[in-house]
Amino acid sequence: MSDTGSHNVSEPHEHLPATGAAHGASAEVRHDPFGNPGHPEHEFRRQDIDEKAAKHSERVVAGLFTLSMLGTLGFIASFVIFPVDKYIYVFPFGHVSALNFSLGLTLSLALVGIGAGAVHWARTLMSDEELTDERHAADADDELRATMEAQWKQGVKESGFGRRKLVRNTMLGALTLVPLSAVVILRDLGPLPEDKLRHTAWAKGKALINPNTNKPLRPEDIPVGSLTFAQPEGLNEESDDFQQQIAKAALMVVRLKPEDIKDKKELSWSHEGIVAFSKICTHVGCPVSLYEQQTHHVLCPCHQSTFDLSDGARVIFGPAGHRLPQLHISVNGEGNLVAMSDFEVPVGPAFWERG
């Protein structure tokens, strides 16, 4: 019985490795999934060993950078060549704006050329040998700074930036030209305002027209304490630029008692207590229209800027930074209210040139 028991105990060990050391090594490899496998052996690229292939890659990179420059120049030229209203047929999109299509195509070439050139340069001509370094503290010491500077210089040397002048010069040309696309886009936001912000449709001799009746306003049409609106003579609601003109020329006309007017200039620019001010709020351009008869205050409904029309329309409350511009008015030979000039200062939201 003892022999049989001994045989049964020893039988399961017949298939174990011959040595305990071998068993331990096998277990260590099998149970260490996070072990560092190391870098594979470095394989040289064709460009590393064949200067002819390297020159070919250099020409490809230079060609991509040159393509980017041509794309930028084409982008700028598109603004000159194609009018806004020209349409062309492009399969499969159908009829599209020639200007938009050319802008998108040329800008894509400019950006893709730079990106593809940089990627091809890095993959074929720059050093591709992987290096490892131990994690270090965030604060670099003098030795580390010197090491990084040396590595930077070595990287520049290996990239061929100084030696491969064709790649360098075409890359610099592409990077220099592509920002011009942004300049052209910003220029296309609209025509330059020039001095248009400083002038409106008002001029000497132009009658104040009631926009509801399209007839000239007369002093007797405006009782004391009332507010009405006016627009310059000659504006046509059917014209293409009517909205642009009325946005600057909209006028509110109020009749006060002459003795209630505190500002001497306002009094001299009025007619029998009738004063005219821009309807456009000097904060963000909302239409001012809420009039308090007893206080002579007018309120902007957007942000509650309040102006005193008996004191030169100065700001007494709210975010507006400037008083409402006053229009100098009088009466012509026909008894109609007319402007004596344009507004003295720009209307609407103030800009820095306005005093």
From TrEMBL:
It is found in: Cell membrane. It is a multi-pass membrane protein. Its main location: membrane. Residues 1-43 are annotated as: Disordered. It holds the Pfam family Rieske. The keyword Protease does not apply. Residues 243-338 form the Rieske domain. The keyword Iron-sulfur applies. Residues 28-43 have a biased composition (Basic and acidic residues). Keywords: 2Fe-2S, Cell membrane, Disulfide bond, Electron transport, Iron, Iron-sulfur, Membrane, Metal-binding, Oxidoreductase, Respiratory chain, Transmembrane, Transmembrane helix, Transport. CDD domains: Rieske (cd03467). It comes from the Bacteria. The chain crosses the membrane at residues 60-81, 101-122, 166-186. Iron-sulfur subunit of the cytochrome bc1 complex, an essential component of the respiratory electron transport chain required for ATP synthesis. The bc1 complex catalyzes the oxidation of menaquinol and the reduction of cytochrome c in the respiratory chain. The bc1 complex operates through a Q-cycle mechanism that couples electron transfer to generation of the proton gradient that drives ATP synthesis. Belongs to the Rieske iron-sulfur protein family. This is Cytochrome bc1 complex Rieske iron-sulfur subunit. It comes from Actinacidiphila epipremni.
